[in-house]
Amino acid sequence: MASDGSLLEGRGSTGWILAIRTGKLSFEEIATGGAPVDCNPEEHSSTWCELSGILACLAAIERVTNGRAKGLITAGCDSSAALAGVKKWLSQRFATRHMQAGSNSDLLREIRAVYRKLPRLHIKWVKVEAHLDRDPQTLHEVLNVEMDELADTVHFDPTWKAQPAAQTFESAIAEIIINKTRVT
Fold this sequence. Notes:
The protein has one domain (2-182): 2-Layer Sandwich (Nucleotidyltransferase, domain 5). Helix content is 36%, strand content 26%. The protein has helices at residues 46-65, 80-91, 97-100, 105-116, 139-156; strands at residues 2-8, 11-21, 27-37, 71-77, 121-127, 177-178, 181-182. A three-stranded antiparallel beta sheet has the order 1-2-3. It has a two-stranded parallel sheet with strand order 4-5. Strands 6-7 form a two-stranded antiparallel ribbon. Helix 1 (46-65) packs across helix 2 (80-91) and helix 2 packs across helix 4. It starts with a strand and ends with a strand.
């Protein structure tokens, strides 16, 4: 399992992958995805994007296995802040008041909730070196490079670009107008 997040010009994205190792630096892909990551602009950060990828991986595992996944998986992430938050939230039996008020707490709460649906799955968290100026030397470095590229492609794909105004539906019985601009 590996994920990476990206934050460019105030817009976030993530890329994630579930894979099986087939060699030292090779793998077989099970599932992968990339998506834009939105949240309150005042809270938007690269850590939020990284955590979104981790949540997507865990949700995919839970959905595909119906919560019956078991064993040990290794999860690679290049964000020390994201790993520290996940490890703290998953190691505590109960969320403390301090944790619930911290940055990224709502996303960490979701990660914890999904992980709790996977009681027989154990995760070894691995810090991966990011943005290498050398060839990758571990499988997680290979996966991180690929997920970094996937997260970045979301930024440049016009499908994911925000539009200045929402589509208009003439048959709608109501509409929302903000600052004299129709948004629905």
